[in-house]
Automatic annotation (TrEMBL):
It catalyses: N-acetyl-L-glutamate + ATP = N-acetyl-L-glutamyl 5-phosphate + ADP. One of its GO terms (molecular function) is acetylglutamate kinase activity. Keywords: Amino-acid biosynthesis, Arginine biosynthesis, ATP-binding, Cytoplasm, Kinase, Nucleotide-binding, Transferase. Coiled coil: none annotated. It is found in: Cytoplasm. The record marks 30, 242 as: Transition state stabilizer. Pathway: Amino-acid biosynthesis; L-arginine biosynthesis; N(2)-acetyl-L-ornithine from L-glutamate: step 2/4. This is Acetylglutamate kinase. SUPFAM superfamilies: Carbamate kinase-like (SSF53633). The gene is argB. It comes from Acidithiobacillus sulfurivorans.
Amino acid sequence: MDKNPQLQAHVLVEALPYMQRFHGRTIVIKYGGNAMTEAHLQEQFAYDVTLMKQVGMNPVVVHGGGPQIGAMLERLGVETRFVDGMRVTDAATMEVVEMVLGGRVNKEIVQGINRAGGRAVGLTGKDGALLRARPLRNAVADLGMVGEVAAVNPEVIRWLDQGDFIPVVAPIGVGARGESYNINADLVAGALAATLKAEKLILMTNVAGVLDKEGTLRTRLEASEVAQMIADGQIYGGMLPKIQCCLDAVAAGVQAAHIIDGRVPHALLLEIFTDAGVGTLIAGCR
Ligand SMILES: Nc1ncnc2c1ncn2[C@@H]1O[C@H](COP(=O)(O)OP(=O)(O)O)[C@@H](O)[C@H]1O
Ligand SMILES: CC(=O)N[C@@H](CCC(=O)OP(=O)(O)O)C(=O)O
């Protein structure tokens, strides 16, 4: 890309109000498995998060890894299926989920941020008892070891923030008897954003945002519109937990929740440092 010093200076000045507004604020970013499939996007994500930390924000990364779990289950010959956007998780599947999310995916993100000059620390919900979980009930199916967040103990995140580290959280929860739960990463991000009283919750996925039945991007959605869109079948599958956690987060006091397209280069910087925004803003009832 051609370097234009005047343009570079202009971009920095334009970013100044955003740096001031978000200084010292927590921004929870859910990095979806579908948004991390290309190396150049992974690298850009790592730089974006590192830059946020460098200018004084507290980014907290929660990652998914659905496609990566799926690929490993396939290699191992374990069949898998989803109900309402949740992977039905038996004991064998849980073992693979924990290995893939807590192992390879988590460490790749940590390593990427460290390579970009940040200081990332990888955790699962077991570390520091961060995520207490209980079984997630579904009206039509037994989801096995799928969990929902029962309680968040944010102490370890606060320590990391204060130490200038960037927490990178894999969505594994711990039950009352120490058993592991597979929690949808969107739900973990929403619960963390609510507990940490985050300024923003940003969910990065592989669609432009929430689309209506004509396939048009909804740049803003009111809480009151969502129930009708679900009833009409306009919002389904993997978008259901995203919408739910955005609604829960704004109801709990998070200022703004965004569903953005992780395939757009530097989508995070565009969302945070420009007025343009990329994707759907979920607004609360207030
Ligand atoms: N109204 C909608 N707008 C956009 N995507 C939707 C909508 N309803 C359902 N979806 C589905 O939700 C998917 C995103 O969820 P998911 O695949 O779980 O993403 P991620 O892996 O990033 O968490 C989209 O690819 C699309 O198939
Ligand atoms: C219960 C449940 O479905 N858990 C998810 C956890 C990973 C995740 O949420 O990954 P994405 O964000 O990439 O979809 C799963 O097993 O795929």
